[in-house]
Each structure stands twice: as C-alpha cells, then as structure tokens.
C-alpha cells in the first residue's frame, strides 16, 4: 500500500463534507461547497444574523490532528486580519472551533474564477487583454506586498472576476516576506518567501490566458515560446516573470515594461 493511497483513504474516511443546511455556531447555515483544497474545504453559508452570505473554511479533519497544520490554519487567520482593507480581498470575521473541527469565517467574494472563465466558459483573452489584467493584478498584489505579505498561490482558481473587478482569495499559503528575500533560494519559485514568488505565479496566470487564444496546428508537444505568437516585449515579460531571464525584483520594473507595451500599442 503506497503512502499516497493511504493518505487518500484517510481523507475519504475523515474528510466528509458538511451536509447542506447544517447550522454552525448557532448562526451560519451551510449552503454549498465552494472549493476543496488539500488542507481545507470551503463552503458558502448563510449568516442568519446579518442575512448575508459568508465563506467558511473548514480545516480537513485529516490535517487537524497535527499541530503543524493547526498552526498553519491559524496563520491564515492572522494573514487575513493583516490584509489592507479592500473590496478585492476577503475580510475575516472570526476563527472558531467546535466538535466538527476548526473554522475560519470570512467574506463571501462574488465572482467567477478564471479557471471557470477559461476552461468552462471558453473565454478568450488576447495579448492586450492579458497585459491589462496583469496590470490590474499588480495593483492588488502591491497592496499586500507593501504590508510584507506574499500570497504564493496566485493561480486561476484563486483570482475572481466580477463586474469588471478582480478579487484575490485563498491566502492559505501566504507568508511574511523573508528578511533574506534578496538572497538566492533553492526553493521552487512558487514557494519562496519574497515577491518574486507572486511574480512567478502571475507569469503562469498570464500564460493560461494567452493559451485561451491558441489554436494548435500540430500534435507535436512544443514549448510555449514555440506555440504562442507574442510581441517581443510580452515574450520578454513572461520570461522574466517565470525567472527564465533575470527576474523582476520590484513591481515598478514590471510596470515600466507594461507602460512600454501600452505606449507601443497607441503609436
């Protein structure tokens, strides 16, 4: 029996989703499952007190048995409390425990994930669309980077679009900027404790959007640099975001390249 199989069996035994309409803390009534991650299950729930919907994150019972996971769950609560006030980030309302386990109560964020927009709804994003969205996201990441917070999970399912506004959710992997952030790290770029981690994820986010406009002409597997037709500046931006070339060290460096791209589009 492999370790992976054992973990899967453990999750299926312990991590049963809460039933619809279950009342938590005599206030929140479970409505539906919003998402299931490796550490938690997030629900949409009705707040009987305020008569608004909230999001409730439940630490998986298979994880809650270890102190290190409970500590990480509490750290997510502290991170959410530290976020700057913005309609693009969820506000946290409390951290609770009951017989069913550990819970975080936070704002329910309206919107559709880019994962659904691209893969379910078939939305197509041009190079220009992608750069505009990247610039908007950069304005949001600046807000929490300036507070010393790195998200480290800026993927399609964690970025929402609603009424022409972007939102960022799921700060479960977020961390404080490392004091040694200027030094070389052997960690995977997605998991380093500095802002280049978020830039790396934004590079992958941008690639997914750019691929929405791609029509394959061959069955041969090729790299994105061979398959996508990009302007030289956007090609360079993606390479730097993915740290193939010298990575961006500040958001201003990236903004400068975006400004150069915009100026060329208008001439």
TrEMBL record:
<feature type="domain" description="Protein kinase">
    <location>
        <begin position="28"/>
        <end position="267"/>
    </location>
</feature>
<dbReference type="InterPro" id="IPR017441">
    <property type="entry name" value="Protein_kinase_ATP_BS"/>
</dbReference>
<keyword id="KW-0418">Kinase</keyword>
<keyword id="KW-0547">Nucleotide-binding</keyword>
<dbReference type="GO" id="GO:0005524">
    <property type="term" value="F:ATP binding"/>
</dbReference>
<dbReference type="InterPro" id="IPR000719">
    <property type="entry name" value="Prot_kinase_dom"/>
</dbReference>
<keyword id="KW-0808">Transferase</keyword>
<dbReference type="GO" id="GO:0004713">
    <property type="term" value="F:protein tyrosine kinase activity"/>
</dbReference>
<keyword id="KW-0067">ATP-binding</keyword>
<feature type="binding site">
    <location>
        <position position="57"/>
    </location>
    <ligand>
        <name>ATP</name>
    </ligand>
</feature>
<protein>
    <submittedName>
        <fullName>Protein kinase domain protein</fullName>
    </submittedName>
</protein>
<dbReference type="Pfam" id="PF00069">
    <property type="entry name" value="Pkinase"/>
</dbReference>
<dbReference type="InterPro" id="IPR020635">
    <property type="entry name" value="Tyr_kinase_cat_dom"/>
</dbReference>
<dbReference type="InterPro" id="IPR011009">
    <property type="entry name" value="Kinase-like_dom_sf"/>
</dbReference>
């Amino acid at each position: 029996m492999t370790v992976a199989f054992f973990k899967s069996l453990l999750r299926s035994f312990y991590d049963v989703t809460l039933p619809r309409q279950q009342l938590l803390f005599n206030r929140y009534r479970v409505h539906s499952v919003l998402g299931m991650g490796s550490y938690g299950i997030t629900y949409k729930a009705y707040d009987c007190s305020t008569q608004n919907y909230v999001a409730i994150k439940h630490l998986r019972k298979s994880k809650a048995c270890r102190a290190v996971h409970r500590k990480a769950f509490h750290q997510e609560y502290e991170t959410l409390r530290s976020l700057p006030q913005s309609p693009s980030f969820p506000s946290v309302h409390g951290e609770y425990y009951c017989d069913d386990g550990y819970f975080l109560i936070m704002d329910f964020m309206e919107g559709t994930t880019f994962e659904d927009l691209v893969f379910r709804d078939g939305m197509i994003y041009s190079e220009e669309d992608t750069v505009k969205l990247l610039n908007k996201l950069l304005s949001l990441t600046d807000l929490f980077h300036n507070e010393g917070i790195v998200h480290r999970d800026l993927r399609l399912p964690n970025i929402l679009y609603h009424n022409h506004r972007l939102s960022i959710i799921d700060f479960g992997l977020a961390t404080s900027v490392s004091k040694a952030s200027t030094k070389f790290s052997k960690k995977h770029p997605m998991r380093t404790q500095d802002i280049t981690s978020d830039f790396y994820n934004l590079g992958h986010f941008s690639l997914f959007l750019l691929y929405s406009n791609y029509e394959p002409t061959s069955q041969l597997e090729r790299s994105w640099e061979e398959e996508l037709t990009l302007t030289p500046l956007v090609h360079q931006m993606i390479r730097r975001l993915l740290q193939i070339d010298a990575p961006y060290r500040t958001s201003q460096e990236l903004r400068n390249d975006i400004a150069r791209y915009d100026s060329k589009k208008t001439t």
